[in-house]
Amino acid sequence: MSKHEDQRPLDAEPEFNRFIDAAVSRRGFLRGAGAAGTAAFFAASPVAQAVAGAMDSKLIGFKAIAASTSDTINVPAGYKADVLISWGDPIFRNAPAFSQKSNSAAQERQFGDNNDGMTFFPLSDNRAVLAVNNEYTNNEYLYPHQGKSITADDARKSQAAHGVSIVELEKKDGKWQVNLDGKLNRRITAFTEMEMTGPAAGHDLLKTKADSTGKKILGTYNNCANGQTPWGTYLTCEENFNGYFAATSPVELSATDKRYGIKDKDWGYDWFKHDKRFDLAHERNEAHRFGWVVEIDPMDPTSTPKKRSALGRFKHENAALTVNNNGHVVVYLGDDERGEHLYKFVSKGKYNPDNQAANRDLLEEGTLYVAKFDGTEGKLDGTGQWLELTWGKNGLTPENGFPDAASVMIFAREAATQVGATTMDRPEWVAVHPGNEYVFCTLTNNKYRGVKESQPLNPANPRTKNPYGHIIRWAPTGGDHTADTFKWDIYVMAGNPEVHPEGLMAGTPNINKENMFNSPDGIGFDKAGRLWIQTDGKYSNKDNFAGMGNNQMLCSDPKTGEIQRFLTGPIACEITG
Ligand code: FEO
Ligand code: CA
Ligand code: CA
């Protein structure tokens, strides 16, 4: 959500801090930390103090629902859940109807598979454009043969089911529906032509046998979460791109291949057998052309999507954009892998609200940073720094393996290690509070925390094996998102107070037997400042996860820390979007 939609100032945090202080000591959560330990983390700004009490004190108005193991969607009394569109549904008037037997040509004209991040772009009260990421495919559903013998057209069908689906919506009889005649309807797939921009564009590491320019890339895939810009474009984020590469004959993998999870075996897609660019024995540079944030203009179906190399190459989760007070555009970016990092991009240029066309390339040039969280063992708050990932600075030099500016972006993970970034418990979505004073990030879980030597416990990731995940938040110094420093605290540690009545495994005090969940993933704020939390975790409902049921969506009041369950999903279904 753009901060421009609603600038209503919001109350600050003192109530929640008092709440945490009291409850923390109640549960013996922090050894030796008294009330002073977490007091006054977010000082109320003069504006916030002036409006305190002017807002509804109760942000959450629905009646929370119970955890569920039923194979359906549940929402509170007074609400209704409906299906808008499903994988394989036509998105053009004359496109074929869904069939598991559909070929690639049909799939190119149908809605993609496995939805993840999405943005609703309103055009009027009863017209809108919806852009939806289609993250991956399941062979067992995609093909009548369940993937036993993937042909060339099967592989192309899989590529066509990935990417992004853009559909026009219209509200008819009070209900949003897909408009099959919408002029903006479009499929972007793993073979749609794109342009690489920014510091890595045209670099030798991006040149391939099929593209000597190093700028003309085919497609986007494994599009996890998303972002949007105030100039009306959609950001789609490439996550587990590694799982699509394999080798038809033995290859030697580099240290950087390994850091990005590239192996000589793929995850079962078989693209490499039919599309040589995914065969490492044929092409080593194709993998450098994925793992980026891609900017798409959903209002122009003929536009060429642009990969934004200034935002770094890693396993991108989402792209949470805000316009800072001084006009610079700031984008927060998570790298979803155990022990990887949290990033921030600051644009070189400034946002011009009076000339949207002038903002089109703000993401082409800027500075990338990575987060370092400092703190004291046993406390759930601290301070932090943004470490600059600029070639020639902070040891990002040829002697350390960074021959030029492009290499810092292409191997952003290694650059982050070089500068001393904090290893995190899988950074998933980031969300900027609509008051623009603080930022939240989900850390979904990490079985290696405190287990692998490279991922020791640290104040921001304090739980061994972190089976439930947590949400961290930070306030930039002086309310300036371009500042190099910040204060942070842990907003919630998910946990199971039923199974573990004491200690870190019980979770923070805003977790109770009625609102338990694990593996927070999608998060977003609505205009009123409610935080919506979606999960992608264990749904076994037993042992550590007893009482949590299926994946779910919860609503939280960041002013009080209160969390209530709003939605539960079908069995095995991640809740996202
Ligand atoms: Fe695609 Fe990190 O979830
Ligand atoms: Ca996710
Ligand atoms: Ca996840």
Q: Please give the order of strands in the largest beta sheet.
A: 12-13-14-15-16-20-19-18-17
Number of spatially distinct domains: 1
Largest sheet: 9 strands, antiparallel
- Per DSSP E runs of 2 or more residues, the count of β-strands stands at 24
Number of helices: 9
Average pLDDT taken over every residue: 92
How far apart the termini lie comes to 12 Å
Structural class, from helix and strand content?
mainly beta
Please mark out the parts with pLDDT under 50 across 5 or more consecutive residues, or reply none. Answer: 1-56
Helix percentage range:
10-25%
What Rg is obtained from the alpha carbons, in whole angstroms? Answer: 23 Å
Bound molecules: MU-OXO-diiron, calcium ion
Beta fraction: 25-35%
Oligomer: single chain
The coarse overall form would be globular
Describe this entry's structure for a reader.
10% of the residues lie in helices and 27% in strands. With 577 residues, it is mainly β. The chain has one domain. It starts with 13 loop residues before the first helix and ends in a 9-residue tail after the last strand. Mean pLDDT is 92; it is low at 1-56. Bound molecules: MU-OXO-diiron and calcium ion (2 copies). One calcium ion is lined by residues 224-225, 317, 428, 521, 536, 576. The site of one calcium ion has 4 residues, from loops.
What order do the helices and strands come in, and which of them pair?
Blueprint: H1 14-26, H2 46-51, H3 104-107, E1 115-124, E2 127-134, H4 139-142, H5 152-161, E3 163-172, E4 175-178, E5 186-188, E6 193-197, E7 216-218, E8 223-228, E9 234-238, H6 255-259, H7 271-274, E10 293-296, E11 306-308, E12 316-323, E13 328-335, E14 342-350, E15 366-375, E16 381-388, H8 405-410, H9 412-419, E17 427-432, E18 439-443, E19 470-476, E20 485-493, E21 520-525, E22 531-535, E23 552-556, E24 563-568
Parallel strand pairs: 6-11
Antiparallel strand pairs: 1-2, 2-3, 3-4, 3-5, 6-7, 8-9, 9-10, 10-11, 12-13, 13-14, 14-15, 15-16, 16-20, 17-18, 18-19, 19-20, 21-22, 22-23, 23-24
